[in-house]
Amino acid sequence: MDKTQDYKLEEFLKLAEKARNCRICEAMCDKTAVLSELNGNLEPKVFFIAEAPGRQGADRTRKPFSGDKSGANFQVLLDSINLQREEIFITNTVLCSPRSETGANRKPSKKEIKNCAEFLEKTIYLINPKIIATLGSVALEALKTIEYHQIILKSGAGNIFRWNGLFLVPLYHPSPQVVASHRRMPEQLEDFKAVAEAIEKSFESRL
Question: For a disulfide at 94, which of 108, 135, 136, 146, Cβ 3.0-4.6 Å?
């Protein structure tokens, strides 16, 4: 590991500790942010952003997209383009797990997204990826807090855009609810081909 990588890891661990100690969101003060070396490679081929840690998934395992059906679906998508977990980094728009009064997963509020925006921006800045792939509309919208865009998931899914000096690929979330009602797995597999194309474009741009 060279000095640049040493510095990146050191700064990332500081950011992760700050996230773990954050208690800004009243409804999630009993939760712990999912941000650690388990999130993935700090020199990733693709930087994925999802919505929030799931109750049965990352909030339990501490590793994004693991331990639940969303994680299993995500693995199928990665496998479809021969992309390894060790080659990517995954984070969330909101780092803690939002729950309803009954304890079920819920969509993060606009205030919670705003509260966590600093962590998202700093993570992107620190890792400095060539490609970002958003998983779901919440993640795509959250990028507007960093650099405004007019991309809409419904029309932009599976396409490659330029955003803030890098490639951006909007994708639907691989949750079972989305797969059942909005974007079925065959469609998501087709969308994911854009990630492989973006990796190729990124490689060519370095030649």
Answer: 108
